[in-house]
């Protein structure tokens, strides 16, 4: 059996996406992990949690239209309610919900985000992979005919190439049965994505991976009724239609991951320093929403051109979040060091690596935590370490390495999605992180974490899974 095993962490050898590629997301075999069961459902202190669940259930069952403002408002309220429950209460209430209860999708997602086990699998309405042969013992069940929708021409073609190469690396690295595979050019436009999907469907493919652009994904999701199951490679404003899934390296995911990282370490009041770039603004919005939902707070948001942090230092700040490039962060650090903010924990987006590369200059960034691709800190079976892979393939080195890892994981998800969808315990140790699937069809990614040490990116101990 060809299952990936974890190996010891090594130095980060590849740089993450350059800003131009990050703008796109403004938009072999996996190890299936089994986790212990949760708290005793008969534990004391149920009255308050029952009331929280009652309110959340009413919101989940309100029947608002997907993607509507009312739906988004209800979902935000549900998340705030669930965040008030401790782990034991959340697990206890989850056990009392049926898999097909509308609230269970929300409670289950909250459990996954906290790294807690599900009491039972999600209902998976519309889930249909009957065209595939039976799964192997580890859950490996790839399609029979796989269509990959990518912008092979147009302005996004440069970003699509490493995604394609990463997917093919996973595909050819698998020794077991593989599907017939065919690539379709979307040209990076919504109309092109719709045409490519229709062609893939008429050609008899039983699964689709892609498209890549955010607007492309939105155009397909807006159809609602999609006959061939799809793993979209970006997020849209609406959730995936029933029976479909979405995988993304979006800036929102980094903001959520940073908020969880800080909250787990007791940092509730966060000072944000951000650039004006859209990707960074989206990360900040996600960070703020997650902090508020879990009882935290953004005390202030300052531009990365700020020179005087005296007033910010006078506020109750537990940690600093940097949504800016490394080149700007280098100029910020001496200013922060001159205030009482000097000893506060600092977390950044992956853009901290942009504009870095000279250890002598980058030593001022030492100690800042930032999310990174897991294969930069550990090997992935069928792919190996980033440094070795980049030495063999130009599309896997430097800034393109993040998209290469993303494409590799797209293959893993295509092969294991049915198992993840039907299993309460399933996860994939992928190249971009630990991957799980929530009840809405969104892949939940727990990234690796890195920091700077002596001016060089390095794995951050005890910050992973």
Task: Kindly summarize this structure in a few lines.
The chain is α/β, with parallel strands linked by helices and 465 residues long. Helices cover 38% and strands 14% of the residues. The chain has a domain at 46-113.
Provide the descriptors you would attach to this structure in a database record.
465 residues; alpha/beta; five-stranded parallel beta sheet; four-stranded parallel beta sheet; globular
SSE arrangement:
Blueprint lengths: L18 H6 L21 H15 L8 H15 L3 H9 L6 H12 L31 E6 L6 H16 L7 E6 L4 H13 L4 E3 L4 H10 L6 E3 L12 E2 L4 H14 L4 E6 L3 H16 L3 E7 L6 H4 L5 E5 L2 H12 L8 E3 L10 H4 L7 E3 L13 H7 L8 H22 L5 E2 L4 E4 L5 E4 L1 E6 L2 E4 L6
Parallel strand pairs: 1-2, 1-3, 3-4, 4-5, 6-7, 6-8, 8-9
Antiparallel strand pairs: 10-14, 11-12, 12-13, 14-15
The order of strands across the largest sheet is 2-1-3-4-5
Q: Helix- and strand-based class?
A: alpha/beta
Helix content: 25-40%
Helices, by number, come to 15
What is the gyration radius calculated from CA atoms? 22 Å
Question: What is the general shape?
Answer: globular
Secondary-structure element sequence? Answer: HHHHHEHEHEHEEHEHEHEHEHEHHEEEEE
**Tally of strands:** 15
How much of the sequence lies in strands comes to 5-15%
Low-confidence stretches: 1-45
Give the distance, in angstroms, between the N- and C-terminal Cα atoms: 24 Å
Average pLDDT reading:
87
Let me know the largest β-sheet. 5 strands, parallel
């Amino acid at each position: 059996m060809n299952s990936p095993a974890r190996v010891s962490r090594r130095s980060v050898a590849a740089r993450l996406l350059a800003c131009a590629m990050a703008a796109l997301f403004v938009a072999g075999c996996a190890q299936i992990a089994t986790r212990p069961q949760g708290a005793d459902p008969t534990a004391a202190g149920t009255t308050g949690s029952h009331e929280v669940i009652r309110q959340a259930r009413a919101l989940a069952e309100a029947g608002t239209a997907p993607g509507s403002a009312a739906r988004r408002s209800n979902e935000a309220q549900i998340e705030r309610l669930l965040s008030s429950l401790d782990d034991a209460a959340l697990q206890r209430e989850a056990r009392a919900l049926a898999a097909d209860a509308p609230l269970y999708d929300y409670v289950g997602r909250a459990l996954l985000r906290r790294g807690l086990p599900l009491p039972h699998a999600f209902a998976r309405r519309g889930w249909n992979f009957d065209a595939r042969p039976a799964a192997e013992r580890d859950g490996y069940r790839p399609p029979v005919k796989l269509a990959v929708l990518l912008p092979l021409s147009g302005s996004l073609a440069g970003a699509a190439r490493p995604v394609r190469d990463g997917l093919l690396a996973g595909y050819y690295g698998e020794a077991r049965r593989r599907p017939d595979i065919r690539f379709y050019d979307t040209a990076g436009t919504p109309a092109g994505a719709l045409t490519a999907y229709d062609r893939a469907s008429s050609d008899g493919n039983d699964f689709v991976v892609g498209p890549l652009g955010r607007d492309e994904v939105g155009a397909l999701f807006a159809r609602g009724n999609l006959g061939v199951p799809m793993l979209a490679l970006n997020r849209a404003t609406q959730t995936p239609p029933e029976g479909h899934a979405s995988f993304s390296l979006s800036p929102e995911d980094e903001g959520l991951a940073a908020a969880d990282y800080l909250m787990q370490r007791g940092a509730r009041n966060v000072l944000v320093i951000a650039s004006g770039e859209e990707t960074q603004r989206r990360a900040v919005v996600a960070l703020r929403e997650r902090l508020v939902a879990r009882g935290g707070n953004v005390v202030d948001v300052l531009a990365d051109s700020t020179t005087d942090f005296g007033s910010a230092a006078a506020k109750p700040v537990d940690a600093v979040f940097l949504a800016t490039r490394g080149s700007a962060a280098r100029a910020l650090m001496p200013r922060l060091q001159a205030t009482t903010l000097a000893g506060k924990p600092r977390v950044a987006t992956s853009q901290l690596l942009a504009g870095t590369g000279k250890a002598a200059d980058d030593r001022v960034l030492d100690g800042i935590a930032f999310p990174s691709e897991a294969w930069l800190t550990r090997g992935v079976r069928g792919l190996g370490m980033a440094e070795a892979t980049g030495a063999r393939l130009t599309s896997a080195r430097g800034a393109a390495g993040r998209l290469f890892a993303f494409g590799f994981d797209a293959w893993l998800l295509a092969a294991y999605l049915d198992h993840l969808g039907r299993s309460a315990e399933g996860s994939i140790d992928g190249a971009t992180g630990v991957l799980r699937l929530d009840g809405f069809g969104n892949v939940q990614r727990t990234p690796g974490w890195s920091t700077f040490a002596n001016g060089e990116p390095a794995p951050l101990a005890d910050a992973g899974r």
